[in-house]
Design a protein that fits this description.
Residues 1-64, 235-294 are annotated as: Disordered. With 1221 residues, this protein is mainly β. Strands 17, 18, 20, 21 and 22 form a five-stranded antiparallel beta sheet that branches. Strands 25, 26, 28, 29 and 30 form a five-stranded antiparallel beta sheet that branches. Strands 33, 34, 36, 37 and 38 form a five-stranded antiparallel beta sheet that branches. 24% of the residues are buried. Residues 1-88, 95-100, 110-120, 146-221, 223-289, 334-338, 1000-1006 and 1173-1186 have low confidence and may be disordered.
Amino acid sequence: MSTPLRGGVAGSGDPSSDRDATGRARRRSRVSRDAPRRAEPLRCCGNVGGHEVERKPSPPGEMDPALAPMEVSPLQLAEMILVQVGPGEAFTVPPDGGNFQYITGPVPLPMLPHSGTMAPPVFLPPSYVPQVMEDNSMCKLLVLPHAVEFLPSLGPPPVPHLAHYPLPQAALLPHSHMYPAEMHPHYLHHIHTVPVYSSTEQDPMCQTVATPSLKLQEPMSRRLKDRPLSIANTVSARPSHAPDQSYCKGAHPSLHNGHSKPPTNPDLSARPPKHNTLSGQTSVSSPLDSKSIGADGELRRMGELLSSVCKPTVSSLTCRSAVLSWRPAGADKHTLRHTPPPFCYELALSQSAAEGDFRPVYQGTDTTYTISKLRPATQYYVRVCAASDSVKGTSSEVVCFTTLCAPPDPPKAPRLLLRTKNSLGIEWKCPKDNGSKILAYLLECSEGKQENFREAYCGSLKQFKLHRLTPSTKYTFRVAARNQLGVSAFSEVLTCCTAGCAPPPPAPPRLRAAGVSWLSLEWSAPCGPPSRDTFTHLLEMEEGPDFKPQHVGQELSYTVKNLQRCTAYHFRVLVANSEGCSQPSAVVKYWTCADPPTCPSRLRLHSPPLSHSIHTIWDAPEDDGGSPISHYVLELSHTDDAWEAVYTGLQTEYVCEGLDPGPLYKVRVYCQNRGGQSQVSEILSVRTAPVHPGPCRALRVSDTATNSEIPLSWEAPVQDGGSAVCVYAVEMAAPSGVARAHLFEGPELCFTARALQPAATYRFWVRAGNQAGWGPWSEACEASTAAGSPGKCGPPKLTVTGPASLQASWEEPVCNASEVCEFRLEWGEQRDALSVVSCGPSTSHVLTDLRPATEYFCRIQAINNAGIGPVGDMAVATTLPSVPAVVEGVEEMRVTTSPSPTQIALQWKEPCCHGAEILGYNIDLGEQLPLSVGKTSQYLVDRLQPNTTYRVRVQAVNSVGAGPLSSILKVRTAPLPPNPPMLECTVLGPHTLKLRWGEGSSRAQLTRGTLYSLHMQDGGDRMPCVYRGPCHSFKLQRLREGTEYCFCIQAIRGAGTGPLSPLYRFCTARSPPPQLKAPKIELVDWNEYTVTWETLQPMRGDFIIYTLQLLRGKEAEQVYCGPAASYTWHGTPAGSDWRVRVCAGRQRPHGTALWGQYSLSTAMENAEKQQDARPVGILHGHCRKSWTITDELFAFLVLLAFGIVAILFAALIQYFLLNKD
């Protein structure tokens, strides 16, 4: 709890108060320096209402991890610095030099100066929160303002106790969005903005972030209650113009010290003014509206209900948890029938019971909560508060409870004190006892791995020395604590090793592998008894007069790199462990390898290549690799992957013999020394000189010889002479002579000798040629031709025997030493598309089934045992003409106009005339005689019976005769079109006419699918169609009144369109006048009335007359009939409740009138009442006129009423539906 320390105003604008405060600070500093140093906890003091309030921090110690409180160590009081806070929220710090320093928050204040003295207590305002942080071994006090957002645009309100304090500069006012550069980012989350909650939102206590303004109500109210009486009266005696501090929707929060002041407690804001017994003053409040007073009363009752929550009860207490339960708020004020409404509860926990040390651990609607993760044997303080919507009640009484004791916490890992060859000294620190004194410690030891632990010590001491251990051995230790409640868990393990002896000298290193610039060495571990200690090996190499280390490690091998080639090096090895280093081993000498030489250069020919040898030469390599060349190797290849060594020696030239002429050879050379083999030189490609090819092989007849051709083939020579054969030559000798004739020259291995004589013998020779020249001729080959095929036949003789037949005959051709055994007759209508129609030894043939008057082509081909002879000459013949062919495609022709019931339109395709022009056609209709028509492909047959089926056939006629009849076509004539129906007018109106047709027997005759076309005559002689469809009635609109119209109708069916009906004349009626408005009645004089009504314009030349009636009940009396628009009469009718109405009529020229509807009636006041009312109006000087509602005013009133109802419905939907969501 916050308690007042001393009186006085710390932030007033009086200079004397600043001097007094400075003087008090200096006096306290001197007293603190003269007093003996003693440990005192840090105190944070604030200035509230001109009084310094001290808040004692929590006792030092580790707190609950769920609460995460600020842990402050005890500090030595060296000097005291007073930080004064004015209305601008500025800190005033007087340092040792005496110059005042103004600091605006948030700012870190040093707690430990460079001189090493401890920091003094710091006095803070109530809206600031101190936090201790440690940075680079220096403790700092981080001062942060409260989460209320500062609005710089609003000026600070007048404060009674600081009324004469001058306003500070704007630069000294702290801003909620400005932080110093040295402030750590993870401290910025403590500064929040103020969330605004309306009365319709959900309870903020049930959310993750609570309202900061509600959390400040309880500390502020308690500080106001704990003030002295004089200060409280000063605060309560505010001027009447001070703004209202009640928390309501839409109210602007007041400012305090440059920050937005949160809404105050509803209990304090709604409290009535109290009378100050000491000063005799009474606080005066401004008048409020009745709605504001009701809202404040509701808030006050809600605050009292929320503040009635009972303190929590602790049950099921253990060392780590506790169950807290409490009664709901308002449970005492409700009966069993009325359960208390559900509220949201906040449960706060603390370890010091200080006001700012409570931390919320639960927020929800349940009244029971289990707190876990508590520390054993620790005293806790707990309280609960309730909230509903934006109202939060005060906290309940604080309940204190202490958790049960528990076994100790696990100790920290033990530490090694001393180490020898046979002993180890171990110590450890005391862990937390958790409320019960530690009785003993258990130390366990394990040799080697962390398993099979055995007990080494059990007692109350915190250190122990183990003896009789093995040298150079690794041991593992762990420790546990025990009290009356049990044994704690074991600590983390400690691994250490006992001391040992220095190792003996090792064996000299051995050469594992050698390279041009590296040597790979290996060595063995030192000899002696086995040890568990780790050995470190040191490899040294001689460089100049001394040995220098090359490798240090636990490995038993190493490769020394970056050495020179063909150089000797000296090495030795040393071994070291934790006890020392051994003597060096014996020195050994090893050589690096030589580098392979470079490849020989300039491999070339010494002379041009011959047919069977080549002479090569090359130069020595530029670098021999540090070792002389031992020999050269010359390799030869005539393929891509097969190389053969043909020379090995020290000479740099060589002649390769025994080569084949013509192929391409590849030559390369490399050298070798002690370091290895060099790279091969560049490849030299050489081709030997070619020679003439050898004779060709196997000259023979490749296929069957014909009577004029012999096909020949041969094989390439075995020896091509080193160059590919590119050409062959063939010669032939005829049987009658000895001279040879040249037949062929080319690269092919086959040839066909043509234009030879049948059954003759010929001799042939062949030879090959390449780049070097021609080779020898092959051996002669004899071959004979076969017998010849027949010769060419002459044109056959064609004799026409009729329109569809003719006879062909021919003569036998030359047989060529073989008799003709068969003749082929080819026949067709086209010269290029002939087909074989006859095969046989006969020399004549008769052709039938031909087309009349058609030209045909014919030719003969002879065949014997030797083959088929050439095709003979072509012969042409034409058959005789005949009657036309059958007429095809006979069908009924579709016409665009409606078909006639007595006509049929036919069309067909013109048939083939068969050599004689078609003269006409005969149409056969069945029972009637055929109808002859001219040369046409379509014809209209008339004079037929309607709706009758006919079987139609057509035949063509030419000069030879009539052709066959076509296939039968069934055609049916169309039926007769329908007659027009009767037309009549069923409904007659001024602007409409409804016509109907098809009544009586005429409608019954009409079939389904009939359409009707209604025509109306316009101003001229045109009869446009006004309707076309299947209906039997039609209504014409937008017609003139009193006008005669002419109509006619016709029926349309599939058979065609029927004739138009005679003209029908119908006249529209005349429209009556419209209904008039209610007449107006005026009292002209005593017992004299004037009735007026609206006038109408003449309608189409007809005058308008009016009739005025006087009504009483169901009785009606006509008082006027004429063209005037007003009427005046004298005399008051007997009785009362008389009404007047008017009606307009249309006067026709022949004397009759067409009357409209009567208007609404108007009530007529009694003359006696009007007489009695007239003097009263004269006495008052007013002439009261009757006010009538016009149509415009009536429409406006209806629209206004509809708008008001719509707004009310929208408000109800907003209140009942949207707010609930």
